[in-house]
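Record 1 of the preview.
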Amino acid sequence: MTTTPSTAVDFDHILQSVGSFGLYQRFILILLSIPSSLISSWVAFAQIFAAASPQHTCFVPRDFVTINMTDEEWKNSTIPFEDDDSTYFHKTVKFSKCKQFDTEIIDHKIIINKSSIVDCKYGWNYNHDIYDTTIVTDLCIILQMNLVCYRDFWPAFSLMAFNIGGLFGNFFIGHIADRYGRKIALFLMLAVISIFGTASAFATDIYTYVALRFFVGSTFPALFSLPFVIGIELSGPQYRIMLNTAFCTFFGLSFCLLCFIASLLRNWKHLLIVTSAPSAVYLIFWWIIPESPRWLLLKKRYSQASDILVRAARFNRRSRQVGAVEQEDQASFGSEPTVLDLFRTPNLRKITILVTYICSDKITDHFYYCRKDISVYMYVLKLLYPFSERMFRLVNSTVYNGLIYDVPNMQLNDYANLALSAAVEVPASLITWPMVNNFGRRCSLTSTMLFGGAITLSAIFFANMHPWVEGGLAAVGKFAISASFTIIYAYASELYPTESRAIGIGWSSVVALLGVITAPYIIYLTSDVRALPLMIMGVLTISGGILALLLPETRNIRLPETIEEAEVLYQTSTATKRFCSLTRRGHRHSNRTNDAQSDSDNTVVERFLIR
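->
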């Protein structure tokens, strides 16, 4: 049997005594932001550049007569034109990537037959203006085959393997974090990235590369969420949204930095090494990063929790020091939590289902900011649905495969397009802080999702207008979806109790990742009606916003420690009856007074604190 709210240690009260957001928490949170924002964004998105397919045409050898022709003249003579499906505002043509005029070499002379068009016979020429090397240009040499044309599914499959790894990894990482500790799970992920991420840069064939990316993918998005869980469990309730805002803002800035680094390196091997090596360096912080004291208390490891809180009190220059808890005053805890525990009780079951559905709309907003030639699924989409590249800029791809925006028809390369997409994260994250503090979690989440869904539906009517209209809608939609993503992560962390928080977030992430894999098939099934995917995704986003109204408000509510405590808390919470809980000065004062009165009556906490 788990402990009830009346007997549980009020950890928020303890934090008030040792400092709920002092120098110690700020120092630790800066360190935690490195894996959560910097390393996770680099690991997730560096592979997009590594798997990019440079512009290419068929290679046709020259003879002594044509040796003096310019490259453009030779392409005009040997490569046919085809329609450019990447633009639909006006008809354009481009050199074929996979076809050439039939040629024969007779007596060292090239004979060109323009009446016959065949597949590339002699290989490919690559444009190195944007990328020096990628897995397309390097691994194909060793395999004696090129990863383009009818083999161009391999780069996309390597990115898909990353997501499939996340399906398995997030479930097990959540279980490890709740059973063995957040710290162990965090550093285990960093070790996996440092080993398999670096090893993938030395892969000599595409099969090995795909297998290594599977193991690297097993750490994402848990690597983003777990440090944040440690952060909110180490800080006071009034700082949770601020922490989430800071982590998400740093995530966007880190992605922008990655685009800059990738544009300088232009070599996939160097890029994967640079983005994976920091994980190995970060392992030295094992002796600095603490275990979550809230989790330690839940597991009755009082001595370790006391040591961490004593250290925090000293750093924060608080007069009170922390001693040991009298174990006889603590109720016994039950068996280790599992995923099934999320569905055993009615209130937590409702929260799990709702959070999972909403996360499936939002959680992969950070996964792919892709252009047509570097998208994880663009190989499939280009075959199945020519309009998909433009459409995917304004939809949540199964409202789930992430907004993969770029700036339409602007003369920018892949690095600049992705950097601009990532830059939208920064103001979107920053605006959530005052929004949530003034209107609450539920109101803010619902509003941003409804607005994002409305923008998605509006794309049906404006998609064929000027490209700058489409670009403006994309920017506004991306802004709204990014803001809701920032809110739902903090919201979910507050809703799940401590004993199953990592499992709950991991479960929601696993179910959400399924959409990344199934999204292209939904696009395929609706390809006959061009507006139908937009309608489906807009409706899904709006429905997620409406369902968010069923969630309890968690502002100024202490984190539940156990499943039973969460049941009692959400059953009696009066905040669930109001849509937007507006902040008033008197209301703030009342909350502080009530909290102080409640704290003074908590005898368990008073025994924990030694004056």
